[in-house]
Amino acid sequence: MMNNYESIYKKQHYGLVGKHSAVKVCHWTKSELTGHGTCYKNTFYGIKSSQCIQMTPSLNACSENCEFCWRFQGFDSMHISDEDDPEFILEESIKAHLKLISGFKGNPKVKKELFEEAEHPKHMAISLTGEPTLYTRLGELIEAAARRGISTFVVTNGTLPMVLEKLNPLPTQLYVTVAGPTKKIFNEVLHPAIGNAWENFNKTLELLPSLNTRRVIRHTLVKEVNMPYLDEYEKMDKLAEPDFIESKGYVHVGQSSDRLKFENMPPHEMVLDFSNELSKRLGYTPYADRFESRVAMIARDPSKARINFQEEIDRQLMSVQYKN
Q1: Which of 108, 123, 236, 270 has a CA positioned 20 to 30 A from the CA of residue 30?
Q2: Residues 6 or more apart from 156 whose CB is under 8 A from it?
């Protein structure tokens, strides 16, 4: 499936896994390893950047082609025709990640203890590119990770609620991207590949409160395109009842720079104003923000922001046991 774009992905330092998966070392993984800052997910939720694998099981498959996406969008279809085994994807993703960070072992800026810790990943962000719910064995991948003591974040565009409804186990934390406040903007900015994407997306928002996991709404904000529209976002967020809401400003990098303008990047102050206004409307509490990432997070219950990883992994495995 990835033959057409293999050279492009390798040039962009992806580690290709099997027929439809890939890993890529995040900027913040490199940053923490070399003694600099950590990802905002560390600030918000306690994720260690140095022990995080960024990956996708759907490298060339997505149900949207978002204007603001800075990744390479070489999507062949909405279908993965020949799926790899979840255990294979997990094992090979770990191997590919460790190979990609192996060069840091001899870096004088990297502490020996920190690198040895990084060789034992504890978190997997299933968010690199593509739409992960198109991989029909996603639940088995999440389960395989949990059995190895690895927590999981899944980022979805919400166009396949029928998958989320049956997903077992659910990830440690489930993100739904909410970046189209109206049907018109949704279609113009997200370019869905299916005709009923808007209706499906709204079904996902309706479904979200019933899902027994940590739930996050992600507002990707593009200045003069999909913000502020506070009334519309407020309505969507009330429907979804997420535990946390992240408001993140668009960044003019990668392939998105061919579609959007530099001026479409909202300054951090604008993102903060948007987030704080949402918190007032929804009764949430401003929790934290990161200037360099143009992101702010508000919480329904701030005391639950930091993840109890063992408790969450136990919940996931209990869910599978109950199913069986």
Answers
A1: 270
A2: 131, 132, 133, 164, 174, 175, 176, 177, 204
Domains and CATH numbers, the chain: 3-323 (3.20.20.70)
Half-sphere exposure of 309 (CA within 13 A, CB side): 17
Give the rounded distance of the alpha carbon of 56 from its chain centre.
10
78 is written with which tokens? 């909405």
Per DSSP, the residues of 99-133 read HHHGGGGG-TTS-HHHHHHHTS--EEEE-SSS-GG
Helix axis angle for 86-101 and 138-147, nearest 10°, is 60
Summarize pLDDT for 4-46 with one digit per residue, the tens. Answer: 678 888 888 999 999 999 999 999 999 999 999 999 999 999 9
284 secondary structure, DSSP code = -
Report the C-alpha gap between 240 and 207 in whole angstroms. Answer: 7
pLDDT tens-digit readout, 204-252: 999 999 999 999 999 999 999 999 999 999 999 999 999 999 999 999 9
